[in-house]
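Propionate 3-nitronate monooxygenase, pasting as requested.
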Amino acid sequence: MTRNRVLDSPLPIVAAPMAGGPSSPELASAVAEAGAFPFLAGGNKPADVLSAEIEAVRGLGVDFGVNLFVLNGPSVDRQSFRRYSERLQAEAEAYGLQLDPQPKSDDDYLPQKLELLVSEPVPVVSFTFGLPDPGEVAALQRAGSRVLISVTTPAEAVAASETGADGLVVQGFGAGGHSATHDPFATPEPVETAELVERVRGTVDLPLIGAGGVDGAEALRRILDAGAEAAAVGTLLLRADEAGTSPAHRAALADPAFQETVLTRAFTGRPARALRNGFIDRHQDAAPTGYPEVHHLTRALRQAAAQAGDAQRLHLWAGTGYRKAAAAPAGEIIRRLSQQL
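Structure tokens follow.
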């Protein structure tokens, strides 16, 4: 099968979109200068904020991408949500916060962001958490964008290909932050990215980008050898000088007290890989499935924890390769990675 390239960059390396601050325009600029393909994280922010970030990166004169969330899953169970909010109230009281027991949901401003990206197109738009409407994919393509959809199984890859997408981001089990699974009730199968790329490559005839567990050149090479045109790195850039990662998160990534990463719904109601901390230990088994409802429930608490430097109540997103994340300029991190290819 012949697959056309979907990304235009000198190196087969993508700076993965990391919502919540790390994927800053400054990080995009640094990785682009080093020859990698940068992404902005459009999730969890309104269209006007995303627009300002896009304009900052557009001035670089390089290809770049914007990632969006597709929130079309089932609503959270209200009784389970209320019990969880009551359980977390003691955590919130440490910062003088009162949690709202009524679930809050939204569409993450997706219609407004799509309108922005159709009227002011960017080279690449990617979607995660679910499938956009084929009409939305076609509208972005008519505007001049290439469209990618994140998948975690061959079955999701087939469904994504049927939307008319130009390529797929294949996310393996070791990825940090939220799983891209289309089913928030599912626990991702423990399959390394290279193996999952091979499975998907045998299922659909689309360009593939492998993501998850990239802790160095060897992992990157395995993904490329499996048939991906590029590999995405996220956790390796969390401690980069230009990343917008919070000081508490940066420190935790280098703290030997944090011994492992785990998949958890405790912070947002959707499976996500993070450094195991006290909050996860206390609430892992009680957390309901429900995004964005649980995300909104804990958001103020997590923000307060970040401001206080409280790593035991903070969502410390991290992939399995977090020990290799270095405190260095992003360009240096990308160059080290590429020199070993």
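Note for the archive: The radius of gyration is 19 Å.
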